[in-house]
Amino acid sequence: MLAGSSSRGGKRGWGERGKDGVSEETAVGTPLGAIMAAAVNQTIVYSITDGNQGAKHLDYEANSSYVLKVEADSMRVVSSNLRVPSKTNTARVVIDIQDENDHPPFFSRPLYIGGVAEDAKTFTSVLKVQALDKDTGNYSAMMYRLIIPPPAGKNTKDSKDGFIIEPFSGV
Ligand SMILES: [Ca+2]
Ligand SMILES: [Ca+2]
């Protein structure tokens, strides 16, 4: 069974399978596992008959699992190579997709405007920024920092008048 709908080209390795399933960054064409059916003295032809629609590239955010219907078709190999009526059977294969950190965070607003009185006490909250991320769990955990620190106040050596941001809350 291969990831995605095409099996052409690319390096073939076993798909990465953590305990949560197959990585959403698994390349198209990566073998994910094998399915076997038994039939005495017969050749078995396998095909995916359902559940493979729109599975070109794995994307956890679009689809976190796939349920495939796999059909095994046993055809008796006869000397004349004619195909006699065959018997089929189907199995359901559930493939869980594992989330990867493939989305950057984005801020809830392009511009934040805060105001503060000039005589406000140190540690007065000015504003809170918020960024969101489409990934789940740790891949959407956020930490904020000021990349252009404001200039320190003129009269203080210890930048008491500067702004700081709390890394985890965004305040
Ligand atoms: Ca993701
Ligand atoms: Ca992310």
Automatic annotation (TrEMBL):
Domain Cadherin: 22-107
Signal peptide: none
A GO cellular-component term linked to this record: plasma membrane
InterPro entries: Cadherin-like_dom, Cadherin-like_sf, Cadherin_CS
UniProt key word Thylakoid: no
Biased composition annotated in UniProt, kind: Basic and acidic residues: 13-22
Entry annotated with the keyword Transmembrane helix: yes
Region feature (Disordered): 1-24
Superkingdom as given in the UniProt entry: Eukaryota
GO BP, one annotated term: homophilic cell adhesion via plasma membrane adhesion molecules
Record GO terms (molecular function): calcium ion binding
Compartment(s): Membrane
Keywords: Calcium, Membrane, Repeat, Transmembrane, Transmembrane helix
PANTHER family named among the record's database cross-references: FAT ATYPICAL CADHERIN-RELATED, FAT-LIKE CADHERIN-RELATED TUMOR SUPPRESSOR HOMOLOG
Name of the featured protein: Protocadherin-15
Originating organism: Dissostichus eleginoides (Patagonian toothfish)
